[in-house]
Design a protein that fits this description.
Blueprint (H helix, E strand, L loop, with lengths): L14 H21 L5 H12 L3 E2 H8 L3 H13 L3 E5 L7 E5 L1 H9 L3 H9 L3 H23 L1
């Protein structure tokens, strides 16, 4: 039996802290950009999902965002109050709530189309390197999720 390599128990040596602190820095970078259009970062992510596929159930959206349905409900209520989405009960199953973009929600996409480019600029790296980093993180997430399900 082979043993696992030993890693130092120092904060800056931890992969988890590098990911966590980078996530905080990323969210902080998005904040002033999203403040201009009145969205929070979780609302922005939710809108991205809807722009990819309109008319999803709350459950489908929660799965796509790796959140639970209870977290989605207040988020979606706020987006509905802002006029970007409407919540509609399912016809075949009233327990299901479908989320649909409004005209204002579709229009919002045009207002924020430059944000991804601004984030890439803020990262101070070339696009190819950042795309590779994103792909590596997606693979890491998939591996961790697979491990957690086992």
């Amino acid at each position: 039996m082979t043993s696992s390599p030993q890693f130092p128990l120092e904060l800056d040596a931890q992969l988890c802290f590098a990911l966590y602190s980078t996530s905080l820095a990323m969210t902080k970078t998005y904040k002033p950009l999203l403040d201009k259009v009145g969205l929070t970062y979780p609302q922005y992510l939710t809108m991205l999902v809807l722009w990819e596929s309109d008319d999803l159930t709350v459950k489908q959206m929660a799965e796509r965002l790796s959140l639970d349905s209870a977290t989605m409900t207040p988020l979606l209520k706020r987006l509905e109050a802002q006029g970007y989405v409407k919540r509609v009960r399912g016809i075949e199953d009233e327990r299901q709530v479908h989320i649909r973009l409004t005209d204002a929600g579709r229009e919002l996409k045009r207002s924020i189309r430059d944000i991804p480019g601004e984030i890439y600029c803020a990262a101070g790296s070339d696009a190819d390197r950042l795309i590779k980093l994103r792909d590596d993180l997606v693979q890491l997430r998939a591996s961790l999720m697979e491990h957690n399900q086992a």
